[in-house]
Specification:
Helices cover about 40% and strands about 10% of the residues. With about 475 residues, the chain is of the alpha/beta class. It has a single domain, classed as Glycosidases (TIM Barrel, Alpha-Beta Barrel). The chain has an 8-stranded parallel β-barrel with strand order 1-2-3-4-5-7-9-10, surrounded by 5 helices. Helix 6 runs parallel beside helix 8. The protein starts with 8 loop residues before the first strand and ends in an 8-residue tail after the last helix. The model has no long low-confidence stretch (mean pLDDT about 95). Keywords: Glycosidase, Hydrolase. Its EC number is 3.2.1.-, 3.2.1.86. Belongs to the glycosyl hydrolase 1 family. InterPro entries: GH (IPR017853), GH_1_N_CS (IPR033132), Glyco_hydro_1 (IPR001360), Glyco_hydro_1_AS (IPR018120).
Length: about 475
Amino acid sequence: MKAFPKTFLWGGAIAANQVEGAWLEDGKGVSTSDLQPNGVLSDTVERKPGDFGLKDIAIDFYHRYPEDIALFAEMGFSCLRVSIAWTRIFPNGDETQPNEAGLAYYDRLFDELAKHNITPMVTLSHYEMPWGLVKNYGGWGNRETITFFERYARTVFTRFKSKVKLWLTFNEINMALHAPMTGVGISETSSKAEIYQAIHHQLVASALAVKACHEIIPDARIGNMLLGGLVYPLSCKPEDVLETMQENRNWLFFGDVQCRGEYPGYMLRYFRDNGIKLEISESDREALKATIDFISFSYYMSGCVTADEELNEKARGNILNMVPNPHLASSEWGWQIDPIGLRILLNKLWDRYQKPLFIVENGLGAKDKLEADGTVHDDYRISYLNDHLVQVREAIEDGVEVLGYTCWGPIDLVSASKAELSKRYGFIYVDRDDKGNGTLARSRKKSFNWYKEVIATNGASLKG
């Protein structure tokens, strides 16, 4: 009988800037996310008095977290992935003393999770950083930001060392290549050399956070977080296969540095070929040797790669510029649905690193229809998640060590890519629309009870 391990962690994943709201409450500073009213892929826009952003209130998790956590507990969650808003702890990013009200909020949040026996997994920086660090220092383009981040990391490790034993450094760290403002706090018009220098500073900061975590919380585990951008060759032409290898390396490079503690040879060649000379100090090289304990990643879809420039041109503008796979169906947002790709990715990462893996994001965004009885018949979501979890089980059978699964958006939240609520992921419906109308009332979708049964049976109820 194929089965999930008894220690497997089941749950969901949310991000502070997409659920909390309370955007200037209790001393919180302004983050890059607060200045991206239309989503993460744009440069920031300075706010004017009276400007409205859906994320300002989001789903008001900041005030409603006890109610939401009770619903997660009802589903049987053993893990909830959350993020700390850096600006709640250091509003401008460069303060020497933290904001006590921000620390106290997360104390209450973690206490509430403990009350329901839900293990927190905490991301230090999830698609946001203090706007003060961007405006006054140049974001991650400035080496000084490493110091500010390490101070922040050490502050929260020290404060929450008895409450949080699972940590992640940067959310989808490789996304900086596609959205530099969101990833590293620099302009979308930055050169490749500037982007990779900022990424280097972030990789050093990540490693210093790993070192600090091991020092301050010896019984904790800390991982990285990759956007699982798996791509296949469009054909078996050697040129397509070679191009695919290079494309996969573009994002695996981050895992290589964080797992192995140094830059791989293929990236050194890439820098040489493109005239990129990074400023890397000896202390940087030493810092990078502090490697992660496990690998976490998101997986939503796969894509194809070809050396054919004409086909590549047609693909420009879709997410990650991937060429569509002719053998796969797509979601309403054009994301191709590929459950087997998750098994392939799990095996690929396990074969490459031999480190435990954790799927911390996977889900289906859709335009849900609320019925008169207050429910949502989201069989399409059930089907998507069922088929992906079956492939996780197959990967475990293949010998891959998988620690757990936290689906993205167990409750409806403001989407990252477009900052809208109409793209819904949750098992729990939130009554709010893209214009900010609604009561914020929560209700259970059909998938709520489906996921509850999956967790209760440790995956035995999955079909397939």
